[in-house]
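Deliverable D4.2, example record:
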Amino acid sequence: MDAATIASLINFGSAGAVIVVVIIFLNYIGKRDAEWRDFFTVLNKNNVEDLGKLTRAKNKRSHSSGTQTQR
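Output generated by the structure prediction step:
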């Protein structure tokens, strides 16, 4: 939104000012949601990787203890 658009909306009085505030708020919310989406995407990816490592470690442990009891 450029200065001319803001000026013309403010010329409408309080309704124009409300429109400007709403547009600024919606832009802020959009940016914040994108940041949160990126944060949770990375968090979920790390969680999946960590669970995979844990599963592999548990499988190795169960296989090694299973072979020891068979001897």
